[in-house]
Amino acid sequence: MFLRKTNNTLNIDEFNDLSLRVQNLIKQLVNGEIIGQSIIATFNQANFENLLGYLNDNQIDYKLDESLVQINQEFLNDAYKFETHAKNASEIKNNLNNSDKGYVEFLRMTEKKLARRLYEHQAKASYHMAYSLNSCNFSVPGAGKTSIVYAAYSYLKGINLVDRILIVGPLSSFYPWKNEYFECFGVEPDIINLSSFDREGKKKYLRRYETELCEVSFINYEGLIGLSKDISHFLKSSKCMVILDEAHRIKNPASKRSVSTLEFAEYATSRVVLTGTPIPNGYQDLLSLFDFIWPKREVVGFRLHELKRLSKSPSEFEVKELMSNIDPFYIRIKKEYLNLPVPIHNEPSIAKMGAVQKEIYDALISDFLSSSYSLSDEALIMELKKAKLIRLMQASTNPSSIDLTGEKWLSLNQAILSEKIKNYEMNEVPEKYKVVLRLLEDIQLNRKNKKAVIWTTFVKNILSLRNFLEDNGIFCELLYGEIDNDTRAKIIDRFHTDLSLKVIIANPAAVSESISLHKACHNAIYLDKNFNGAQFIQSKDRIHRVGLKKYDEVNYFYIFSEGSIDSIVHKRLLEKEQMMIDIIEGSIVPLFEPGFESDLSDSDVKYIEEYFRKGIQ
């Protein structure tokens, strides 16, 4: 950048960092000196406004060149729009009355367009979203965020502010968005899944070559990387609402997903962020979310390094300031607002290990407790401990699920134990499988709802349990990472419509988000679990969410191997769940402890070791 005194005109091409250095340069300029000082920078709206403020406050005469006059007018228009929508959003969030004319008109229009009637908490959240134009919805899983978005979209489309939707989300969310469109509007959507196209196919569609645009376009986060210019072109050519579903996937500002998303954000007419866990790691996770909904406005008011510091050492004053900054722009529906039936957590069913399983388990726990490590690398020691504990968790359900490749995790009787693990399925049926069979038979006989989802962490258990149940006359479908999205959608659809399909076996890591099973199924059986608190809670929310009747009975069944690590895992998960409930229901935005989303964190290992030291299993 060059600052140059020419006929009392101040010519500024770019400006990023309003510093004492720049102020000193301006003082020299005003004193009549000619300055040819280069500053490498990126133009930044907030700092440009600060610079103009500095010049005005110091009564320094200046004139903007033509390019800056145009830019400044755009800034003024953007600032006015921002202030207007911020005011609307704040009023609606904090002072909404059911008789407000705007809200009554919103209800009238959406009720005319929607085939589905919204609950009151959904209608108010949707009204906030529509009038904010750009907003975040941090509601708990199962609150009906898809319906909220479609209602807001129908209103904005009705007043000609938007005419189409671009949804960015995980691949698993495409079919829920497609199906919910039909549920909301009563007609099949005009929708396209760009994730099924190759790169050139995506570019042709986004550039409108040889194809017409659909009302609803979907793309997954990985699919948009490198297509920012094409998506920007797409957005410029229409009045588009852009939705980021499961938006915590862009929480890292440096990630390719985040960078690509923020590059096209400014060209959207309306922007919506959806996630139930906005800051699982720290306040820094908020930055990309709010930079997306209001590009260039710096809504959060703190920089990345400041947010990281705030996460480690919270300052009450700064946290309040942060929350005040973002308050107008998000809605959070808590679980308590959903008026759902209270789920039944049945007492754990105890499975007595078979003789071979018990022998394998005892050898593994003896190895874990007696191991000494001569290594000085503490991180490597922790990884070895985690490997041993994972094998212990596998053995407590089905020893044959243990992966024997790279057996450095084992130090006692390795050859003999490995042989027993390899041959386990030829000698025993896991006792937990027999308990699952009894529970399913009980559900068929004694429960009003006859369908069940069985959750298990390890893929080998998914396959072998399916074989066991089918050998005993119970047909199952599977939902896990190897099942492609088209097949997954067909399975879920069949589960809802085919009375003969009563059981799905699923992996929480693959399907704990973006699917709903509550219309068909009210029973969940947990064969085993890991320490991932987010997946555990999300898996429960697959059958406990908006749409249940008050008289519906939702049951959770847990299976422990007697005297095993299962009870410790369960206790730890319940503590994490309660921590999340306390945070979500008691705070504005949830901030979780490190390791909350980890399958087995360092703190989990220390938790287990403490129990073992006390002789508790």
Please give a structural write-up.
48% of the residues lie in helices and 10% in strands. With 617 residues, it is of the alpha/beta class. It has four domains: 59 residues, no CATH class; 245 residues, Rossmann fold; 184 residues, Rossmann fold (3-Layer(aba) Sandwich), CATH 3.40.50.300; 74 residues, no CATH class. Strands 5-6-4-7-8-3-9 form a seven-stranded parallel sheet, with helices on both faces. Strands 10, 11, 12, 13, 14, 15 and 16 form a seven-stranded parallel sheet that branches. α20 links the parallel β13 and β14. α22 packs across α23. The termini are far apart. The N terminus is likely disordered.
Blueprint of the fold:
Layout: E1 5-6, E2 9-10, H1 20-30, H2 45-57, H3 66-95, H4 101-113, H5 120-132, E3 134-137, H6 145-158, E4 164-169, H7 174-185, E5 191-193, H8 199-206, E6 216-220, H9 228-236, E7 240-244, H10 256-264, E8 270-274, H11 286-293, H12 304-312, H13 316-326, E9 330-331, E10 344-345, E11 349-351, H14 355-370, H15 378-395, H16 414-422, H17 424-427, H18 431-446, E12 452-455, H19 459-471, E13 476-479, H20 485-497, E14 503-506, H21 508-511, E15 523-526, H22 533-541, E16 555-561, H23 566-586, H24 602-613
Helix pairs in contact: 3-5, 4-6, 5-6, 6-7, 9-10, 14-15, 22-23
Nutshell version of this structure?
By secondary structure, the chain is α/β, with parallel strands linked by helices. The protein is built from 24 helices and 16 strands. Helix 6 (145-158) packs across helix 7 (174-185) and helix 9 runs parallel beside helix 10.
Q: Overall mean pLDDT score?
A: 84
| C-alpha termini separation | 67 Å
Return the CATH topology of the largest domain: Rossmann fold
CATH homolog superfamily of the largest domain = Tandem AAA-ATPase domain
Largest sheet: number of strands, sense, barrel closure = 7 strands, parallel
Integer-rounded radius of gyration? 28 Å
Query: What form results from the Cα inertia axes?
Result: globular
In helices, the fraction of residues equals 40-55%
Beta-strand fraction estimate? 5-15%
Poorly predicted ranges: 1-21, 28-43, 590-594
CATH class descriptor of the largest domain? Alpha Beta
Structural class: alpha/beta
How many separate helices?
24
Instruction: Provide the domain count.
Output: 4
Question: Biggest sheet, strands in spatial order?
Answer: 5-6-4-7-8-3-9
Total strands: the figure is 16
The second-level CATH architecture of the largest domain is 3-Layer(aba) Sandwich
